[in-house]
Amino acid sequence: MKKDTPWPNKPAQSQAEPVLTAASCSHVQDEFVPQNGKQVLWYCCGPTVYDASHMGHARSYISFDILRRVLMNYFKYDVFYCMNITDIDDKIIKRARQNHLFEQYREKKPAPAQILGDVQTALKPFLVKLAETTDPDKKQMLERLHAAVTSVLGPLQEAVQRGAAAIEVAPKAEMLLEEAKDLLSDWLDSQLGSQVTENSIFSILPKYWEGEYHQDMEALNILPPDVLTRVSEYVPEIVAFVKKVVENGYGYVSNGSVYFDTAQFGGSEKHSYGKLVPEAVGDQKALQEGEGDLSISADRLSEKRSQNDFALWKASKPGEPSWDSPWGKGRPGWHIECSAMAGSILGESMDIHGGGFDLRFPHHDNELAQSEAYFENDHWVRYFLHTGHLTIAGCKMSKSLKNFITIKDALAKHTARQLRLAFLMHSWKDTLDYSNNTMESAIQYEKFINEFFLNVKDVLRAPTDITGQYEKWDSQEIELNKSFYEKKAAVHRALCDNVDTRTAMEEMRALVSLGNTYIAAKKSNRQAPNRMLLQTVAAYLTDMLRVFGAIDGVQPIGFPVVGSGQNMDLEAIVMPYLSVLSDFRETVRKIARENKVTEVLQLCDALRDDTLPELGVRLEDHEGLPTVVKLVDRETLLKEREEKKQVEEEKKRKKEEAAQEKQEQEVAKLAKMKIPPSEMFRSEMDKYSKFDDSGFPTHDAEGKEISKGQTKKLKKLYDAQEKLHKDYLEMVQSGGSS
């Protein structure tokens, strides 16, 4: 009987298939395993909306958007993303109250003399505050405010004292009112803040800034959350949450407020306090910052059993918004809002909780404690993701340092894609320095990969029939394809490693370099690059950038090219016409070269260099190859044109300088040639005092006879000059110079 032919053995794997890993609450990076198959429940701490969103916010929200897209679009998880808006907060209350009181003050149209007097009165407590401030950034900011106010206060005071006309005084008063707005608002709040009681006053400010925040997120191409929760809409749920924490024995009522009992919780066998940052437990500065400026007065602090305890519910003081509760009129603490809202939407346990690095303690540690106290579990969050800090050119971002950059400021200088590329090129969990160097690297990365896309598109536009697109593979194609799969595997490993986009982007850059080398080698041999292989590589890179949120739309290759304010695919519409124009120009150039019509060639160059760049079109002429047509951002082309012009001007300047230097050297050489050797040393009377009949020095300036060694050196110079002068005399005789 015929033997069965054995199948070859399965090859041994060199390493285990990579799996997605993430850092758990225990700080150990391990395989990412959601609680319910491919479904991921994710809660993210959103903004406190009382001012413009800045690059610190962008650091978190762009990074989380990248992570979310990678989980959804690359690893194919079903992500349910919930985010909150903090619209009840000590900062919001104080800012809203001050804005309201300042607007009331302005509406009363106070006389210049009253404005002057009120500012002078407000300066007294301000100067006390300035003297007591120890934080250098805050002190610098207050000093700047003081300087601005005093610079305009003096002129108004002088005008009022001499009884100047209203036409002169009024503008000075208005200028003082503007410069002293913060100072006056603070003073008005101290005098009248307790009289502001209408809850609606405290909702105007956060509603406005929330709208601005959403506009910023849309401009940054950040996906909206699946659910958005506002603290003001969840007060009943928060009250119920606090009530159960108290019932479970982990909270206590004190003077109308409710506090979390950290000692009781930490002493329980089922729980531990400070899981995320245990070394920070007891950090009073951090704890007080978490409680808020309006909640750290001596009477409030005395209500606690321990300084480590924190507010779940705050009894409202005059001038603060309030809601009914079993403990009287009050408002939510900061930490409790996330626990109650996340619990309402996601239940007793979530897979991922995200926030900035600075939220680890006390915010997230306190969230964990009160949530596990409510649910009586020890797994409220499976994985915490904390984005790294953002610095500005190596410094902490601060208004006092004048480096406070809003998202709108950043988008005025760079595109949303460039900002996202900058974030992708750095680890999401490490400090990111937002600087000119960082952004220039992102711009160059974008330009580098875009040029590859444009080159591939040009290859694909070459006419061919359906069978012509299938071309024979040689060693170059086989090698590029092998490298392509190696780079794909490297990108996959990087994304599995806690979503390491930095390494992934570098591997993608290396793949582009290999593609460029392949195209260049083919063109240098007058061969057409393999269409399908390049299309496969470019489509993969496009898909990855789409996964990262750096490309929108459904175009198969490259960055979208759209008309201004339009959603149409500009490239698909205009490229056929541009190709016809390019072919016509190439035919005209060929005829002009054959007939040596210089003027026509110059017009063809002008079309390429001057006219088409203004329209966002780049033509690239290659000797012996068809002209390449590329659609590129108009500003980029104009910048390239200016840089090219500067390079040419610099080249011309250096050429002129070299010619001038050469001319000067020739003049100097000629002048030297004219000197007879008998005269060359006689002019150096500071060195020599006696000479022989041929003009050769025999004694130095002090009358001492020149040594044999020195004589030998001088003789070499003398002989060289003798030859040089002889050449000059021969040149004169032949009529070469005079």
TrEMBL record:
Keyword check for Nucleus, yes or no: no
TM annotation in the entry: none
- Cofactor(s) essential for the protein: Zn(2+)
What broad class of enzyme is this? ligase
Q: Which residue range or ranges hold the tRNA synthetases class I catalytic domain?
A: 32-442
What EC number is given for this enzyme? 6.1.1.16
Q: Which reaction does it catalyse?
A: tRNA(Cys) + L-cysteine + ATP = L-cysteinyl-tRNA(Cys) + AMP + diphosphate
Region of interest (Disordered), ranges = 643-713
Q: Where is the composition biased (Basic and acidic residues)?
A: 643-669, 681-707
Q: Out of the domains of life, which is the source?
A: Eukaryota
Say yes or no: keyword Transport present. Answer: no
* GO MF annotations in UniProt: ligase activity
Mention any Pfam family matching this sequence. Answer: tRNA-synt_1e
Keywords, sorted A to Z: Aminoacyl-tRNA synthetase, ATP-binding, Ligase, Metal-binding, Nucleotide-binding, Protein biosynthesis, Zinc
Main function: Catalyzes the ATP-dependent ligation of cysteine to tRNA(Cys).
Name this polypeptide is given: Cysteine--tRNA ligase, cytoplasmic
